[in-house]
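Lab notebook, bench 4. The sequencing result for the construct came back, and we need a structural model before the next group meeting so we can plan mutations. Quick request posted to the team channel:

Model the 3D structure of this chain.
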Amino acid sequence: MLSTVSKQFHQAVSSVMSNTVIPELFIGCTIKHIGSTHCLFKSPPLHIKAENLDYIPKEHLETCLDRLESLEVPINLLEYRRIGLIKIRAPNAKHIKFVDGSTKCVDSHWTESGTTSVGVSKFKRNPDRHCYDKFFAQLFQSYINQNNSDQWIEIVSRSPIGPPSLPRHFKGRFSFTMDLSTNRMASFDMFFESDDESDEDYIDMGDYSSYYIAPNPQLVTTLIVRFFFDGDSMVDQFPEYRML
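Done. Here's the predicted structure in token form:
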């Protein structure tokens, strides 16, 4: 509303909205009249969540994808039968964040949209975890830009299977958050011990079955767990930790 105060202020706000990566940007409806005098967006935004691509007019979609510097994509590693991967052509994205949640909000739309820039692949779940290997192999193949050493791939996972192995050719930044605060089995199985010689917290994974032992623990950058004290629970976050 403040942008209506003056033409100069509107232009200043428009310049920021159009040329700045704003991860907190919320898009709740179609952005009409992109590029017009009265629209705050002179061009499509530099950051977007995959589910908000539906609010970009089709005539601006390719420009939006080419301009993107930051992209957030939902994944669902705990899906019961099939794991869905939304593949978006974003050749210039410097930061791509994958957040473990529901893919239903975009699944049906993009499988029926007919566009070649966005699609969905599905991987059937199996007990030997090969589905995860295929999923992450396809994810890296679809999103990693070998020519961009500044690229940042970030994954926030609710699954206790742990981070995937990185492709050898990947030279960018990788971060993996293992959020077990909503996973009931993992939350109950995990407990902490104090070292007599240090105040550091050590995570004892000894009681985990082989299915829940995280591969590549050295790639976990943040761990979020839930403590249980006399029936009460508390969520805490550990940016650095060691696994016993």
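The chain has five helices and twelve strands.
Will bring this to the meeting.
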